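Late entry, written up from scratch paper. The run itself happened at the end of the previous shift, but nothing got recorded in the book at the time, so transcribing now.
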Amino acid sequence: MSFKLTYATMFNPPEEMHQRYEAALAELSADLGGRFHLYIDGEDRPAEAYDTRVSPLDRELVLGEFAAADSADVDAAMGAAQVAFKGWRHTPAAERIAIMRRIADLLDEEVYLLAAALTLETGKNRFEALGEAQETADFFRVYADSFEQQGFDHMLPNDPLPDWTSTNRSVMKPYGAWVVIVPFNFPLALAGGPVAAALVTGNTVVLKGASHTPLAGRLLADCLHRAGLPAGVFNYLSGPGSRIGDALVAHPSTAGVTFTGSYEVGMRISRFMVAGRYPRPCIAEMGGKNPCIVTRNADLERAAIGIVRSAFGMGGQKCSALSRLYVHSAVADELIARIKGELGKLNIGDPRQRENWLGPVTTAQAHANYARYAAQLGESAEILHGGRQLDDCGDGYYVEPLLAEASLEHPLWREEMFLPILLLARVDNFEQALELANDTDLGLTAGVYGDQREVNQFLDEIEAGVTYVNRPQGATTGAWPGYQCFGGWKGSGTTGKAIGSFYYLALYQREQSHTIVE
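Output as recorded:
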């Protein structure tokens, strides 16, 4: 199919996309309910215990029994990765690059089956699920290309010695056994991206899948196995973070960690990684409380579309989702009307059905949190749309998109709710909006709708790693490998470098200087 899947392009896809997705969904649904093991040292490894997982779109739909790793499994996986490191780091770069591209090709072949699994496991609609599956394949391809192009081996000028030839060289080398810990909301892409980066640069990997969404990681492990990775180079564990996540971070063989998740957990891991006998690298992306500014000069039709897509896509369960909206008072009423009009067009329900745009939230805890936040806003803010848990969509975790106008002193302006809840405030001018947008400890994504002068000031002063301007495809969301880099400032990230950027692969390597006198 010539159609290019990205988050920005798939809102008017060809009919073939729907047909292939639905065929894959039927194929996968026929095989649900089985037992899924760990993957260690090139082989499936049974566990002492298994957890039964059900789908958030229908709690009667059993996805399968998934291995719950323990400390012995952690030791086995880290031991396998440590042993495999010597051979993998000495594998020629061209061979590692070729394997990454082979993985990308295999993921391309499975993209519809992977998307079907993501729908069943996370509750994403087909567009979001297909986007994540294709994004994962693109990560492997983009990082293979980037490593090939950058080289990370540079000759420097010779020392200016009259009687000696003294050559100098900068070489980047991998660290060792790298741990990747992923969240429930993007269990495939946020696994595949760091795994690809770590592997292509010569590290070995132990991947820990999110306990709520372990299927995606297991399917990724199957793909990497088929690609022919040597035993121990990649290993997959599933189970609770409190049991095996902490054990992986603390393991003496862990050379570095990539973590995506909450600010609190990310900061704890980051502090731990620098507190040992010597500091070890921690690449942490820790969420966002993302703002959008709509000025009196904005295209309100474009803004309303982008706001709804960004705040409520995948039920707001994205670290990049819009959660704070600052609107000039002169256009606030019209924008609110347009947003409510867009929300009125959305179908909520079983995401397997083509007509439904918003499926359930992923976890029982998120479902309960929504009710708690809605009640809090009902008491202390004006709810403009939504606020109900929905019982008529089936036995799943369905809720309405919630839009509320709240005072600037409301505590939820500072809490990352990770739900389809958007707070709105009226402002008197652009400068006030920009000050409010920056008034947060987090700085992942931000958007603006305005004229050229306002855009220029926004891009100069906004404190966020990912910015979007006048974008109907998403006010604060929608980065794609090879098109946008993605990373946070302030409390949203530990490195100041972004996924998919020119600088990301360097984070998985350490520099060594070679001076040789002949």
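Residues 290-479 form a domain with the Aldehyde Dehydrogenase; Chain A, domain 2 fold (CATH 3.40.309.10).
(Scratch paper discarded after transcription.)
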